[in-house]
Amino acid sequence: MNPLIRPRRLRTTPAMRRLVAETRIHPAQLILPLFVREGLTAPAPIEAMPGVVQHSLDSLKAATADAAAAGIGGVMLFGIPSTRDAIGSAATDADGILNRATRAVAAEVGDALVVQTDLCLDEFTDHGHCGVLDARGLVDNDATLERYRDMAVAQAEAGSALLGLSGMMDGQVAAVRDALDAAGRTDTAILAYAAKYASAFYGPFREAVDSQLTGDRRTYQQDPANRIEGLREAGLDEAEGADVLMVKPAMSYLDVLADVAATAQVPVWAYQVSGEYAMIEAAARNGWIDRDRAIRESVTGILRAGAGAVLTYWALELAAEGRV
Ligand code: PBG
């Protein structure tokens, strides 16, 4: 038996494998999520995300300088305020922690990478929901849009170049676009978390932002069972003017990512979320998997499925390795 066709030929040496690789991880397609906590004077570890910290303003500036030096594409900032209320006032306050941090970071590295901000109320509300509540205690979609409009203008004025709309309210992209344009911020871009699922893999993030949430987000985030709905959400956000679409989480939603990437006419990114990070770190700590290979394989899979860029807590580490 002499097989005529031998695919193994292209796998014979590291040089051959490298040459025929269809997917590469380039620092420019990595985005590093960063947490900044009001009142901190030194970084504080996040137990469920070993290696990730809540930053002070100073350590945040240092981290973004490192990110710029490593050549990564951008940073996504999350703020943790010291006081919270029902409407998330700190989110729209120009002196709120996220807006202050954005101002500081944009001034420092705004030319070297894209400074992005999470546009959602959950870090800022005392009930931990992504919007404001109505008299029955349910998230009020349209009242929340008013808060997002103000939050968007505050973030744009602080220097955010790309607003990450992660709240999953209906009509949020159109509402924010309209508010930005009315404020003369026509160049501020929108990254729509178009297909964002109600996921158990956000678990460690709740510790990272000291979440006040009791209950869940299933009345606004998508049901993990639904694939077509992901395409529908992505189509709506693109039609409302989103500049970039996001699928989130990444690893359990690669089918949705591939679907959206095949049909969208804007860039499509994916967010490798806190639980995806924590799982690999925890297994590696137990000696159960090869950490470096697992990290690279996971990010490669997300890119292979169609992501143009990946938000990952390993962005700096992957870029610093210089493996392109
Ligand atoms: C909402 C937001 C969340 C994450 C990013 N933006 C939390 C949620 O929707 O519950 C999760 C990111 C992660 O888990 O790494 N502000």
TrEMBL record:
<dbReference type="InterPro" id="IPR030656">
    <property type="entry name" value="ALAD_AS"/>
</dbReference>
<comment type="subunit">
    <text>Homooctamer.</text>
</comment>
<comment type="similarity">
    <text>Belongs to the ALAD family.</text>
</comment>
<dbReference type="GO" id="GO:0004655">
    <property type="term" value="F:porphobilinogen synthase activity"/>
</dbReference>
<comment type="pathway">
    <text>Porphyrin-containing compound metabolism; protoporphyrin-IX biosynthesis; coproporphyrinogen-III from 5-aminolevulinate: step 1/4.</text>
</comment>
<keyword id="KW-0456">Lyase</keyword>
<keyword id="KW-0627">Porphyrin biosynthesis</keyword>
<dbReference type="InterPro" id="IPR001731">
    <property type="entry name" value="ALAD"/>
</dbReference>
<dbReference type="InterPro" id="IPR013785">
    <property type="entry name" value="Aldolase_TIM"/>
</dbReference>
<comment type="function">
    <text>Catalyzes an early step in the biosynthesis of tetrapyrroles. Binds two molecules of 5-aminolevulinate per subunit, each at a distinct site, and catalyzes their condensation to form porphobilinogen.</text>
</comment>
<keyword id="KW-0350">Heme biosynthesis</keyword>
<protein>
    <recommendedName>
        <fullName>Delta-aminolevulinic acid dehydratase</fullName>
        <ecNumber>4.2.1.24</ecNumber>
    </recommendedName>
</protein>
<dbReference type="Pfam" id="PF00490">
    <property type="entry name" value="ALAD"/>
</dbReference>
